[in-house]
Design brief:
It is a single chain. This protein has one domain (8-57, 69-83). Helix 2 (17-33) packs across helix 3. The chain is an alpha+beta fold. It contains three helices and three strands, in the order H-H-E-E-E-H. Strands 1-2-3 form a three-stranded antiparallel β-sheet. A hairpin with a 2-residue loop joins strand 1 (38-42) and strand 2. It has helices spanning 8-13, 17-33, 75-88; strands at residues 38-42, 45-50, 53-58.
Length: 89
């Protein structure tokens, strides 16, 4: 049975340490680029919303934008994408 998460912290903590580090930095960058975003768990993955609308989801699974952990995570790109989505409303 798949573990069900009740918080973004619990979701991040479920991954190995190297993945936790990448998710934590991704979270920090999203929060920095869109400080008014809210966090929640949606479909059992960490998600960010803005004014009640989905903004960005992050996890270590299959998503629209995928960043292999074997390569450097493009945190600057993640910030720009989150900010751009926030602008579009």
């Amino acid at each position: 049975m798949t573990e069900r998460f009740d918080s973004v912290d619990a979701c991040i903590a479920s991954f190995p340490e190297d993945v936790q580090a990448a998710l934590t930095e991704t979270r920090r960058r999203i929060r920095r680029s869109v400080p008014s975003a809210d966090e929640r768990i949606s479909y059992n993955i960490a998600a960010f919303t803005l004014d009640g609308n989905d903004l960005v989801s992050m996890g270590a699974g299959k998503d629209t934008l995928e960043f292999p952990l074997a390569r450097p995570i493009p945190y600057d790109l993640i910030e720009r994408v989150a900010a751009r989505f926030a602008e579009r409303g």
